[in-house]
Design a protein that fits this description.
Strand content: 15-25%
Family: Belongs to the band 7/mec-2 family.
Largest sheet: 5 strands, mixed
Protein name: Stomatin-like protein 1 isoform X2
Distance between the termini: 72 Å
Order of helices and strands: HHHEEEEEEEHHHHEHHHEEEEHHEHH
Keywords: Membrane, Transmembrane, Transmembrane helix
Number of helices: 14
Radius of gyration: 32 Å
Length: about 400
């Protein structure tokens, strides 16, 4: 029976002495007992005799064909690895580090890496307790503390650990509202660490770190009040501090990072901005031209450097086409298609365009929620944030 001292991970030196004291070498008098975690019944004396005879013949064959057989029988195990050897199907004591001798035809082996490894749980859409829809992922670091258990108890250790982490994350977030997930992310990560370890320790694996990553909030809570509240204030503060990160988009890449939050407030009144904008009696598409034309400049062209085509769907179902050329000169905006090939084609509804101009909707939030469709480079499309900032 495999002995374990609680759930404490042992250092490499203590681990070797622990394994040597727990398991005997098969082929000796104590080797008739199987050391695997399944606690096999002792071998009968005829089985032990056959085992010893075949092992002796394999060792004799190794000596006769030496040194040619040495190239195949001698294996080098580095310090950060252990070698699990199966002799005639029965597991032996983990070998290594150093040089390990394998008997030809009767020994098979598997290497186990003891170093810390990491994987990412891909972002998935989850519904919180208050009805909010968010995209959440996680980063997990783990290491193997018992190579025998890692080989004997589970076939695909990486896949099993990944699915365990994803299931634990899903169950934990379904029980919490959106505000608690955002404010107590570190506490939730520590709880996930304990829950995952409760499962994986039986596999000889220990998780060292779990970091929860909230990618975006795709839909606000359904039971939130219609008027301003504390949650709305916190969301606006988050948008204020995170809005500066979009300036890096002008370099041609999306701002990475697992801590990025994208929140869309559908009930916030439009933020006041300087300049002409779409009026209630004026069509939104025409208001786009009137609002953008006075703010076009060479500085904005140098910052964006792209040409956009907007396909705006009107309430009647018809579609109007406009362009915004910020590739040359001081920029141009007008009705119809641009002179050249646009870098990005943006498709959206008239109401969403109005929300975008009034800064009630962010480009990234509109894209994540499916209200803005992009044909072309997404990083170039996100540079529209610089155009919206010019409307302030």
């Amino acid at each position: 029976m495999l002995g374990r001292s609680g759930y404490r991970a042992l250092p490499l030196g203590d681990f070797d002495r622990f394994q040597q004291s727990s398991f005997g070498f098969l082929g000796s008098q104590k080797g008739c007992l199987s050391p695997e975690p399944g606690a096999d019944v002792p071998q009968s004396w005829p089985s032990c005799l056959c085992h010893g005879l075949i092992s002796f013949l394999g060792f004799l064959l190794l000596l006769i064909t030496f040194p040619v057989s040495g190239w195949f029988a001698l294996k080098i195990v580095p310090t950060y690895e252990r070698m699990i050897v199966f002799r005639l199907g029965r597991i032996r004591t983990p070998q290594g580090p150093g040089m390990v001798l394998l008997l030809p035809f009767i020994d098979s082996f598997q290497r186990v890496d003891l170093r810390t490894r990491a994987f990412s749980v891909p972002p998935c859409k989850l519904a919180s307790k208050d009805g909010a829809v968010l995209s959440v992922g996680a980063d997990v670091q783990f290491r193997i503390w018992d190579p025998v258990l890692s080989v004997m108890t589970v076939k695909d250790l990486n896949t099993a650990t990944r699915m365990t982490a994803q299931n634990a994350m899903t169950k934990a977030l379904l029980k919490r509202p959106l505000r608690e997930i955002q404010m107590e992310r570190l506490k939730i990560s520590d709880q996930l660490l304990l829950e995952i370890n409760d499962v994986t320790r039986a596999w000889g694996l220990e998780v060292d770190r779990v970091e929860l990553a909230v990618e975006a909030v795709l839909q606000p809570p359904q039971d939130s009040p219609a008027g301003p509240s504390l949650d709305s204030t916190l969301q606006q503060l988050a948008l204020h501090f995170l809005g500066g990160g979009m300036s890096s988009v002008a370099g041609g890449a999306l701002p990475p990072g697992p801590d990025t939050l994208e929140m869309v407030s559908e009930v916030e009144p439009p933020a006041p901005h300087v300049g002409a904008g779409p009026t209630p009696k004026q069509p939104v598409a025409e208001g786009l031209l009137a609002a953008l034309q006075p703010f076009l400049s060479e500085a904005l062209v140098n910052q964006v450097g792209a040409c956009y085509q907007f396909n705006v769907t009107l309430p009647g179902g018809t579609q109007s086409t406009y362009f915004l050329d910020l590739a040359t000169g001081q920029g141009r905006v007008g009705h119809g298609v641009p002179d050249g090939i646009p870098d990005v084609v943006v498709e959206m509804a008239e109401a969403d365009l109005r929300a975008l101009l009034c800064r009630e909707l962010r480009p990234l939030g509109a894209y994540m929620s499916g209200r803005l469709k992009v044909k072309g480079d997404l990083a170039v499309a996100m540079k529209l944030e610089a155009v919206l900032r010019a409307l302030k």
